[in-house]
Amino acid sequence: MSNEMPPHGDEVDAITEAVLTASRLLVGVSAKSVAAVAGPITLPQFRLLVALGSRGPLKLVSLAEMLGVNPSTATRTVDRLVTAGWAQRNSNPDSRREITVSLTEAGRGLVDRVTEYRRSEISAIVERIPHEDRAGLVRALQAFTEAGEEPPPRASPYDAGLTEWQ
Fold this sequence. Notes:
This protein is mainly α. The protein is built from six helices and three strands, in the order ααβααββαα. It has helices spanning 10-37, 43-55, 60-67, 71-84, 105-127, 131-147; strands at 58-59, 87-92, 95-103. A three-stranded antiparallel sheet has the order 1-3-2. Helix 1 (10-37) crosses helix 5, helix 2 (43-55) packs across helix 4 (71-84) and helix 3 packs across helix 4 (71-84).
């Protein structure tokens, strides 16, 4: 990300409105992809699976903080995902009293299938964008996701510099 000063005033409002509008489109694509591929799973449950897929095994408390929910909500969601076979609880090798949550192979496969469907839908939208506007879109979205501390889509959850989630 560059050292340019952030936008102020009307420019921030215009950017915010554009991102809000784009987010409606992306939420629609996300909901459609989950419904088409995953069947009986909610978006919050899928969001938890994606978090585990992009960041690796996490403690329940860290997972709850990251998702902005209370620990009991995270626990209930994990319970449902474990029952469905998409997540598993593991003893932390460094502290037997601590439990971490991770994806199962079925959970990883689900995330991969939904992501591929989503990639296809987004690609179809991007193809309709004039070529000359695409480079600016890439730069803007990279800056946006970096500012929001979202890890890159194909990053290993074990890259040390990727995330602070412990």
